């Protein structure tokens, strides 16, 4: 029995030091070279912090672009998905409620034109971006509620659309917080 316990204890101790001490210190060290030293990039308006650039936030007023839904109510301390499968009745009811809400606030948009990201939460529940299509389907509502021409709001979306990383990796996206702050500055 001693021949198995000693190696198991040594392996446990080695992995503990490697995964609980060395790895976190290594990640922390790399974070020190990132913007804001890995603490998150805050967004300020007139000296007041209004949010984080890479954390989704809830916007529900009709004069703002809406973010992607969150399974964790935009709580960055507990990010995560709902873990409900696509056939789960509770999940289907939640998605249907989101569809109904969206259609009430955007009556000119057909159900088939609503992008999936405006109805389903991301894996982290904190996605700060939507696709350009996700912003585009909201343009009519925003223009109407702010008494702006649709082409002006559409141009604002276009200027805030970020292409794929290095032109190759990932989809185009629009940061909702940045877009709504620019909208308030019009």
Outline:
The chain has 186 residues and is mostly helical.
Annotate the secondary structure layout.
Elements: H1 2-31, E1 42-45, E2 48-52, H2 89-105, E3 129-130, H3 132-136, H4 139-146, H5 150-159, E4 161-162, E5 173-175, H6 176-184
Helix pairs in contact: 4-5
Which terms summarize this structure?
mainly alpha, three-stranded antiparallel beta sheet, 6 helices, extended, 186 residues
Q: What do these coordinates show?
A:
The chain is mainly alpha-helical and 186 residues long. It has 2 domains: 1-39, no CATH class; 41-184, no CATH class. The protein contains 6 helices and 5 strands. It has helices at 2-31, 89-105, 132-136, 139-146, 150-159, 176-184, and strands spanning 42-45, 48-52, 129-130, 161-162, 173-175. The radius of gyration is 22 Å and the shape is extended. The mean pLDDT is 89.
**Amount of helix:** 40-55%
What distance lies between the first and last C-alpha atoms, to the nearest angstrom? 75 Å
Over all CA atoms, what is the radius of gyration?
22 Å
Strand arrangement in the largest pleated sheet: 3-5-4
Average pLDDT score: 89
Total of domains = 2
Shape: extended
């Amino acid at each position: 029995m001693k021949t198995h316990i000693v190696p198991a204890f040594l392996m446990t101790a080695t992995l503990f030091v490697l995964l609980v001490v060395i790895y976190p210190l290594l990640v922390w060290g790399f974070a020190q070279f990132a913007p804001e030293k890995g603490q998150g990039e805050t967004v300020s308006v007139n000296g007041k912090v209004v949010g984080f650039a890479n954390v989704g936030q809830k916007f529900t007023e009709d004069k703002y672009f809406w973010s992607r839904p969150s399974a964790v109510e935009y709580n960055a301390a507990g990010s995560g998905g709902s873990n409900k499968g696509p056939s789960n009745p509770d999940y289907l009811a939640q998605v249907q409620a989101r569809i109904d809400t969206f259609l009430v606030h955007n009556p000119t948009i057909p159900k088939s034109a609503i992008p999936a990201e405006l109805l389903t939460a991301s894996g982290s529940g904190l996605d700060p971006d939507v696709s350009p299509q996700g912003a585009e389907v909201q343009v009519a509502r925003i223009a109407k509620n702010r008494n702006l021409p649709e082409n002006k709001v559409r141009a604002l979306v276009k200027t805030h659309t970020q292409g794929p990383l290095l032109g190759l990796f990932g989809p185009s996206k629009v940061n909702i917080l940045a877009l709504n702050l620019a909208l308030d500055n019009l």
